[in-house]
């Protein structure tokens, strides 16, 4: 299977220098499943010709808000709708989760509860109680027509969504292993844009394992079997 990666942003330089950009992180996460990859840096206005350029698609995270005015967002939303109409399967992570919801008629907003950073618990019926690393303030607040919640916690009610048999999205970051999130936390340790109490709590929690591999298996199952993988 050829997986097209739509890179919606870039990892911070200190992180990318050590771990690679988001496309590399996802290739590492999904390495057991034998996919081939092609990457389009949509954040830099590099787009595929259409949905047929790959067998399935994955949208990465980004520092940008899905509701912000950036040149890449309107053509990305159009591409999302085209992929959806084609029936090809699509995965969305963090910003990818949000922009897919927005493109299909949902709402994304800054959450009044603030930031979620680091190791966070989620209830995902297909997996049970899992821990994944989060890094977000924005959330999907209104679901698009046809979207169903398949993962949540008290802080993020719409943390994972499925759309029929073709789209699975999640708010946290299965590609951010404890080693990667440690370097994120180090890069942001004194950045006033982020709540330092949550940075400190995330550093303390980062000694504990996350369930990245289990969620990667669910992603791969969905790419192969669609909604059946969630049962």
Considering DSSP H and I runs of 4 or more, what fraction of the residues is helical? 25-40%
Number of extended strands: 11
| Derived structural class | alpha/beta
Which CATH class is shown?
A: Alpha Beta
Number of domains: 1
Radius of gyration: 16 Å
Give the rounded overall mean pLDDT. 97
CATH superfamily: Class I glutamine amidotransferase (GATase) domain
Give me the CATH fold name: Rossmann fold
* Known CATH architecture: 3-Layer(aba) Sandwich
Number of helices: 7
Widest sheet, order of strands: 2-1-3-4-11-10-9
Largest sheet: 7 strands, mixed
Q: Which overall shape is indicated by the principal axes computed on the Cα atoms?
A: globular
| H and E order | EHHEEHEHEEEEEEEHHH
User: CA-to-CA gap between the ends?
Assistant: 23 Å
Poorly predicted regions are none
Residue fraction in strands:
25-35%
**What oligomeric state best describes the polypeptide chains here?**
single chain
InterPro entries: ChyE-like, Class_I_gatase-like, GATASE
Domain Glutamine amidotransferase: 73-178
Protein name: Glutamine amidotransferase, class I
Pfam families: GATase
């Amino acid at each position: 299977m050829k997986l097209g990666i739509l890179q919606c942003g870039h990892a911070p330089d200190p992180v990318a220098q050590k771990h690679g950009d988001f496309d590399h992180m996802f290739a590492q996460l999904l390495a057991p499943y034998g996919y081939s990859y092609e990457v389009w840096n949509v954040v830099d206005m590099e787009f595929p010709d259409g949905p047929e350029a790959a067998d399935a698609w994955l949208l990465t995270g980004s520092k940008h808000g899905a509701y912000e005015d950036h040149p890449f967002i309107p053509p990305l939303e159009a591409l999302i709708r085209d992929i959806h109409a084609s029936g090809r399967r699509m995965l969305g992570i963090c910003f990818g989760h949000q922009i897919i919801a927005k493109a299909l008629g949902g709402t994304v907003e800054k959450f009044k509860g603030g930031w979620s950073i680091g190791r966070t618990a989620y209830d995902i019926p297909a997996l049970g109680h899992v821990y994944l690393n989060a890094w977000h303030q924005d959330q999907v607040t209104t679901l698009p027509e046809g979207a169903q919640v398949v993962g949540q916690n008290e802080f993020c009610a719409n943390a994972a969504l499925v759309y029929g048999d073709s789209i699975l999205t999640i708010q946290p970051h299965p590609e951010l292993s404890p080693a990667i999130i440690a370097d994120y936390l180090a890069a942001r340790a004194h950045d006033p844009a982020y709540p330092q109490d949550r940075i400190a709590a995330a550093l303390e929690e980062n000694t504990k394992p996350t369930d990245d591999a289990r969620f990667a298996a669910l992603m791969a199952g969905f790419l192969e079997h669609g909604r059946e993988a969630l049962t």
